């Protein structure tokens, strides 16, 4: 296998390791906690997911676009600067979260306090992935993320049943230290002697600002809407929605891989017809996979479900038909956006804004009418609307639309991690 092929395999495996970490953290937290405790943990984890995505959009996506000029050390300086900005920003946000945790009562407050304390560790560890990607050494990211997976699973398995959300958050965060240390050690030879400069991240017109807008409307809006359900309505709704989507975590690896590695492959197709034929086949395959996975989960016996999610299983199981439908149409939507990224990259932002806000409205409206099940079906309807609009936009493109390389991978679907 060529060096480029090995790098692609390492990137996919690294994405799988990162996704497995998120899935197993939620599964183990659900098994260790009561339904109410997992609801508190889920609210904190949703908050972390939003902050992780913002850092990915503001720092990570611009970092992987950097090109090195031999002899200048530009890429090394960009990596060091990105990590320095991530460390400073996460420490500031962590202080705010810790203060919020002191103000909030009970277990919820202690969980947010714990998140504030460990936020710099987990964001820095994740930020190393983008440095290694920019340096074209994804195997180093895989090594660090594999260690992260092993450490967090071991640490959580050692916790007693009934552990509080605050304790679980603290253990989850501190367990990132070995992977962070390994990642910094692996990065050091590549950035030795480079200087960090935070000024580009603060300038008006910085490219990451556009990516943040896309993330905010495409992912953060629905995450915050789900979090709002827990704050203003029923915290158990967050646990149920989070538990149901956690079971579909393996599909996120496929969606992320399609976004990451699809554009170069699809871009080689001849003309609009060739691109659409290829992405339509990919979308159909992802849709069938999503529906099949949903059917498998729905057929699980209650005993097996409780082994996965503990007390949260009963509430999450009721949402599986809606979540399975959501992931099926998300496969179609992912490939519609992939098609637009290749044929007309500027066409995705308006879709993200309009249909992400529509998804939030359907989520909240569904909850108001039909409770948690209504919220889940609202998310599914939002994803279906976005997929339909995406393919309609593709159909309206001129037949001679040129294939253009994307500026970056499209941010995740707004409801993928809800």
Structure overview:
This protein is mostly helical and about 425 residues long. The protein is about 80% helix and about 0% strand. The chain has 15 helices and no strands. The protein has helices at about 5-30, 35-65, 75-105, 105-135, 140-155, 165-175, 175-190, 205-235, 235-245, 250-265, 270-300, 300-310, 315, 320-345, 350-395. Helix 10 runs antiparallel to helix 11 (about 270-300). About 55% of the residues are buried. Residues about 400-418 have low confidence and may be disordered.
Concise synopsis of the structure shown:
By secondary structure, this protein is mainly α. 80% of the residues lie in helices and 0% in strands.
Instruction: Report the principal-axis shape.
Output: globular
Number of helices: 15
Give helix and strand order, one letter per element, not per position.
HHHHHHHHHHHHHHH
Summed over residues and divided by their number, the pLDDT gives a mean of 84
Largest sheet: none
Give the helix/strand class. Answer: mainly alpha
Oligomer: single chain
Portion of residues within helices: over 70%
Topology:
Blueprint: H1 3-32, H2 35-63, H3 74-103, H4 106-134, H5 138-157, H6 165-174, H7 177-191, H8 207-233, H9 235-246, H10 249-266, H11 271-298, H12 302-309, H13 313-317, H14 320-343, H15 348-396
Helix pairs in contact: 1-2, 1-5, 1-10, 1-12, 2-3, 2-4, 2-6, 2-8, 2-9, 3-4, 4-5, 4-6, 4-7, 5-7, 8-9, 8-15, 10-11, 10-14, 11-14, 14-15
